[in-house]
Design brief:
The complex is a heterodimer of chains A (360) and B (416). By secondary structure, chain A is an alpha/beta fold. Chain A has helices spanning 2-21, 45-55, 67-75, 87-95, 115-118, 152-155, 157-166, 175-185, 195-206, 237-246, 282-292, 295-305, 320-323, 329-333, 343-359, and strands at 33-39, 58-64, 82-83, 99-100, 129-141, 169-171, 214-215, 232-236, 257-260, 267-276, 336-337. In chain A, strands 1, 2, 3, 4, 5, 6, 7, 8, 9, 10 and 11 form an eleven-stranded mixed β-sheet that branches. The radius of gyration of chain B is 29 Å and the shape is globular. Classes of the chains: A alpha/beta (360), B mainly alpha (416). At the A-B interface, helix 3, strand 7 and helix 15 of A face strand 1, helix 8 and helix 17 of B.
Chain lengths: 360, 416
């Protein structure tokens, strides 16, 4: 009762303020606060302020760096309303009953989303709404005379020696991404759990790993690439776009970094916006999600993060530079989703990874 | 010996305090009762399944009834205590029962704050009944260590005996030592991978400690020999980097060391010593540089402490007895400053073993150390918490043993 009174009082206060400032009144009754837990650098933070100003909902915004970190926090009882898990984590969280199913009627802007992005392996019942998606491939500096077209640039000893001499290589410090890429290079599935295939991938990596200048998947787009600490990098498309945005100059109006999806195929992932099962503010959360799905807002998120939005309405509104990072239909067909591994497979991967890391 | 009357008053005072403490628990017991219905359906942490089973039979109503009983009994006890009744044994019984209740309360309602309140409060009663001011003074830090160090450590050990499930939870239904076995099993073609990671991390931490000592000892000695008013200024200068976050200080080194960084452009453009930029980042050199830079103050400060306290007459005595400077140092000065050496080494070695930020930023991620392995298991792609817990448990135990041995060593030498 007290809570309801408090909400009513807040609504009254806010409506007075908005009546005075001539701002649009809220269409529905919203909660006074919303707890949002997102990846670092994965939104246009101005949008949060605008949402607060327009709707009088205070947005408490926190960041995480990995899915597992977010998962552990939620399990330990952190009370967030909205989280942004990746594909496999959405599947896991649904299985554990940690997510609430979003009421599609409350999110009308869902109509702007690409039908393909909605039809996913990890969320067949549409508990969540797709947020952003991306691919992993190779980023290279425009000064390279011959742009790479294959994973061989990172894994073939001769080419590795060549690029090391030209300015160095960065690969991601991420077992699913790096081992996955080697598996693709060798012609296997990026989700393989065959020991022989993984051992071949290990040997391939061990033969070149000592030459890599960096193992960085955390901040390479802001540190290594703009400073040209490397000439070529294993990279996510959004991060490459970010590096390109950061290096725009008169000489390079489109930035200094380009991105390719290797001919052997790359990996793909998608983050979703989800409402937690324990959220007592589901309606407000849905209202916020609908706000993020507005085409102009989705475009702004894309421009700020460099990642691709599944929002079709946003496609004409994004920075022209980002458009060159959109994969073609043919490239799209070459991408493979990163899938969760079973316990035995995970252990095998982890051991292979430890061998690679101590041998490099 | 105190006069009888005074001794009685002294005892009475503890019992008075106990009376107030019990009265408070009578009040918040009622307050917690209000929370009971709100806390009914809490999620269970994977690690708590055992505890949960224990409480399954207990209904919330049962716990509520217990709370009421406790509150009423506490009310009565507090009145008796405040009027000066001598009921120490009854109060002690109440305190132990309170600790048991806190466990039960947590198991049923998963309200950590409430359980902590009940448990810590009951412990306070025991501390008061001991009539020992020392125990009483140490009590807050004991609670702190117990709740935030010992309990989680038990959690880590428990988790290390379980198995991580497909959904990333720790299953404790079939406890085994499999995770510990995995630590000492050869992997693929690379031998004892995990032992290797452990040894190389300890080696890097050891090198860091030795370098810090070699740099820090003469430096601390020099500061201690400065005129009094200068000493504080020098110490202040040692501490100033601490005012900045370690991560930022480490990134500053990136700017200095990288290929087009400060150092390289200095060497090429200004001095013309070299023509091609040196690759300084991502080398063992950069890693050690960062670690030594980050932890040097931890070495200098305790060393300075013990060098400053050094009795100059001891040195003079050694010189009077014709000891040459080298002999004076090793036989007199060094043994006397050993407590500082031990403290400084521990303060440097332990954080260096746990290094994660420095090795990743300055090593470019090329050095896979314990910190990286733990990160992989807990919040990274490997996601095997049970295995990570086993690694963490072994690390904690080995560090504890090393520290104890080292302390013992320092004490023995310094007093003989």
């Amino acid at each position: 009762m007290a809570k309801r009174l408090a909400i009513l009082a807040l609504v009254a206060i806010w409506s007075t303020i908005f009546a005075v400032t001539n701002a649009p009144l809220r269409a529905q009754q919203l909660d006074s606060v919303l707890y949002v837990y997102n990846w670092g650098d994965y939104i246009d933070e101005e949008l949060l302020i605008e949402y607060e100003q327009q709707f009088g909902v205070r947005v408490v915004y926190d960041n995480y760096a990995t899915n597992e970190e977010m998962f552990a926090k939620l399990q330990a009882g952190a009370e967030y309303d909205i989280v942004f898990p990746s594909d496999y984590m959405v599947a896991r969280m649904i299985a554990l009953g940690l997510l609430a199913k979003i009421d599609q009627e409350n999110v009308p802007n869902r109509k702007f989303l690409d039908k393909q992005a909605l039809d996913t392996w990890y969320d067949p019942e549409n508990f969540c709404v797709p947020y952003m998606w991306g691919t992993s491939g190779i980023a290279y500096h425009v000064s390279l005379e011959e742009p790479p077209d294959s994973w061989a640039a990172l894994f073939d000893p001769e080419q590795v020696a060549k690029y090391t001499a030209l300015g160095g290589i960065n690969v991601m410090d991420d077992q699913r991404e790096l081992l996955g890429a080697v598996l693709k290079y060798l012609g296997y599935s990026a989700n393989s759990t065959e020991r022989a295939e993984l051992e071949q991938a290990r040997d391939t990596l061990l033969s070149v790993a000592s030459q890599y200048r960096y193992f960085n998947s955390a901040d390479y787009q802001e540190t290594l690439l703009p400073a040209r600490e490397v000439i070529i990098s294993h990279a996510w498309n959004g991060n490459t776009a970010k590096a390109a945005l950061l290096t725009r100059s008169e000489t390079y109006p489109n930035g200094e970094w380009r991105y390719i999806i290797p001919k052997e195929g790359g990996l793909r992932f998608q983050e979703s916006i989800c409402v937690t099962a324990r959220s007592p503010r589901k309606a407000t959360a849905e209202h916020f999600i609908n706000f993020l799905l507005k085409p102009e807002n989705a475009a702004r998120i894309s421009n700020a993060t460099g990642y691709l939005s599944p929002n079709i309405g946003a496609r004409d509104l994004i920075d022209p530079l980002l458009k060159q990072f959109l994969p073609t239909e043919e490239e799209l067909a070459r991408l493979e989703w990163i899938r969760p591994l079973d316990s035995a497979g995970r252990r095998l991967w982890d051991e292979i990874w430890a061998e690679i890391r101590i041998g490099s | 010996m105190l006069p009888k009357r005074a001794a009685h008053d002294y005892q009475q005072r503890f019992e008075r305090w106990a009376g107030w403490v019990v009265l408070m628990s009578a009040l918040y017991g009622m307050a917690l009762l209000v929370r009971v219905p709100l806390l009914g359906q809490r999620d269970i942490l994977p690690i708590e399944t055992g505890l949960y089973r224990l409480a399954e039979s207990l209904s919330m109503l049962g716990v509520a009834a217990l709370l009421v009983t406790f509150s009423l009994a506490d009310g009565g006890l507090s009145v008796l205590l405040l009027r000066g009744a001598r009921i120490g044994y009854i109060v002690a019984g109440r305190a132990w029962a309170g600790i048991a209740l806190s466990l039960l309360y947590y198991a049923t309602l998963r309200d950590f704050g409430g359980a902590l309140l009940i448990g810590a409060h009951s412990g306070m009663l025991l501390a008061l009944l001991s009539r020992n001011s020392g125990v009483l003074l140490a009590y807050p830090s004991l609670v702190w260590l117990g709740v935030f160090f010992v309990l989680p450590l038990f959690g880590v050990v428990a988790a290390s005996l379980g198995q991580t499930t497909e959904l990333g939870l720790v299953d404790l239904s079939a406890p085994s030592l499999a995770n510990y076995q995995r630590l000492i099993m050869p992997v693929g073609v690379s031998g004892l991978v995990y032992v290797n990671i452990f040894v190389r991390t300890v080696w890097i931490a050891f090198l860091t400690t030795v370098i810090c000592m070699v740099i820090g000892y003469p430096f601390a000695f020099w500061i201690a020999r400065q005129p009094e008013r200068w000493r504080n200024i020098w110490l202040m200068l040692v501490m100033i980097p601490f005012w900045t976050n370690l991560l930022i200080r480490t990134y500053a080194w990136v700017i200095i060391l990288r290929r087009d960084g400060v150092l390289n452009s200095l060497l090429i453009d200004l001095l013309g010593v070299i023509s091609r930029p040196l690759d300084l980042l991502n080398t063992p050199f950069a890693l050690l540089l960062g670690l030594v830079y980050g932890y040097l103050p931890f070495m200098v400060l305790p060393l300075y402490q013990s060098i400053e306290r050094l009795d100059k007459r001891m040195i003079e005595a050694a010189q009077d007895l014709y000891a040459d400077p080298v002999r004076t140092f090793w036989r007199v000065i060094f043994p006397l400053t050993l407590p500082g050496v031990v403290a400084g080494s521990i303060l440097v070695f332990i954080p260096a073993v746990g290094t994660y930020v420095v090795s990743n930023v300055l090593g470019g991620g090329r050095f896979f150390l314990i910190g990286n392995l733990l990160e992989q298991q807990f919040i990274g792609a490997a996601g095997d918490k049970a295995f990570g817990a086993a690694f963490g448990a072994v690390l904690t135990v080995l560090m504890l043993i090393a520290t104890l041995v080292y302390f013992r060593l320092g004490r023995k030498v310094s007093y003989t």
